């Protein structure tokens, strides 16, 4: 395994105050796309897609549906799970905002009946949820908020070239959310130390070339196709496996856990091969891994909270489970965190 430079472990939460998971919710749009649907228009096969990604079906937005629509529904479900309709702040992680400007979070907050509370977007691609979780936890730890709604939502198919086999078979749309409340670092649901990292030198591995100020200010029109998401699959695979493994180990060390003490491994659902490789390096057997990639594909930043919501609803994630979360995405950005799942 390649050794990457490691940042110092995060400081322990302030004594007596921590962000605690109080509710969870997830949502995928109703429009289902099967592998057979993709085979009809791409040079691929069901076997090829399943073997390389582990995906059988995915959900995609219908015309006119935006990221905010997904975020509102997931947020509403998380608030209902927490048995509360009010929070002090909203943090939205997304790579596909409704508009370049303004941020999408204020509109989401207003539609949820939370007009007036601080609301802002976080951009960290597939690691967005963990970055947003860190922001929400920081608001609580700093005494700025008592309750925070953290949402991750992506309409990823709106930035995917429908004719690009390398991305069209992988990415999908969805949203997930958690409600955080102020509590004790020793109680179930308390978010453990969050480990984050980034590497801008490799930002060209994942991204959308056109549409930002770099391209717009150049005076050169975007080349055909540059408005779509691009990914260097082979290099991304290597980086994802190495970074997710390394940051998971650092998160476990910060929490005082060993890999064998993890009950549920909730990794970003990038593709099945990455998930298997990371779990094997950590020594986490398949029966301890949570996965929904076969049903929903890669939903970007929404991946982890959507997975948690579905697993909690289905009963594969229960109170007392020690959960390790990790993700990797464009930026490059990565992260990991732990939580002992509460009774919801």
From TrEMBL:
CDD domains listed in its UniProt record: KAS_III
Coiled coil: none
All copies of domain Beta-ketoacyl-[acyl-carrier-protein] synthase III C-terminal, residue ranges: 252-341
SUPFAM superfamilies documented for this protein: Thiolase-like (SSF53901)
Major enzyme class: transferase
Record keywords, A-Z: Acyltransferase, Cytoplasm, Fatty acid biosynthesis, Fatty acid metabolism, Lipid biosynthesis, Lipid metabolism, Multifunctional enzyme, Transferase
Domain of life: Bacteria
Listed name of the protein: Beta-ketoacyl-[acyl-carrier-protein] synthase III
Organism from which the protein derives: Actinacidiphila guanduensis
């Amino acid at each position: 395994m390649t050794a990457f430079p490691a940042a110092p472990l995060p400081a322990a939460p302030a004594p007596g105050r921590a962000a605690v998971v109080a509710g969870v919710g997830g949502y995928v749009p109703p429009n289902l796309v099967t592998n057979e649907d993709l085979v009809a228009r791409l040079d691929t096969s069901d076997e090829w897609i399943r073997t390389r990604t582990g995906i059988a079906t995915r959900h995609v937005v219908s015309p006119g549906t935006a990221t905010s629509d997904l975020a509102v529904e997931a947020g509403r479900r998380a608030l209902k799970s927490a048995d509360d309709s009010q929070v002090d702040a909203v943090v939205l992680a997304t790579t596909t905002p409704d508009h370049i400007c303004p941020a999408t979070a204020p509109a989401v907050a207003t539609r949820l009946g939370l007009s007036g509370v601080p609301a802002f977007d976080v951009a960290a691609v597939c690691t967005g949820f963990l970055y947003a979780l860190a922001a929400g936890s920081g608001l609580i730890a700093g005494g700025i908020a008592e309750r925070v709604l953290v949402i991750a939502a992506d309409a990823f198919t709106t930035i995917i070239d429908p004719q690009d086999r390398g991305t069209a078979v992988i990415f999908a749309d969805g949203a997930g959310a958690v409600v955080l409340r102020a509590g004790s670092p020793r109680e179930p649901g308390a978010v453990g130390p969050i480990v984050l990292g980034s590497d801008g030198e490799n930002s060209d591995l994942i991204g959308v070339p056109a549409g930002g100020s770099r391209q717009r200010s150049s005076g050169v029109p975007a080349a055909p196709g540059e408005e779509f998401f691009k990914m260097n699959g082979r290099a991304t695979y290597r980086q994802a496996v190495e970074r997710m493994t390394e940051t998971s180990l650092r998160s476990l060390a910060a929490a005082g856990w060993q890999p064998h003490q993890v009950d549920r491994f909730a990794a970003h659902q990038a593709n099945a091969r990455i998930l298997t490789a990371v779990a094997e390096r950590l020594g986490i057997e398949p029966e301890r891994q949570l996965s929904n990639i076969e049903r929903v594909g890669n939903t970007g930043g929404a991946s982890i909270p959507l997975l948690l919501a579905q697993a909690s609803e289905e009963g594969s994630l229960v109170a007392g489970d020690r959960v390790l979360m990790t993700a990797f995405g464009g930026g490059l950005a990565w992260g990991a965190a732990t939580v002992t799942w509460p009774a919801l």
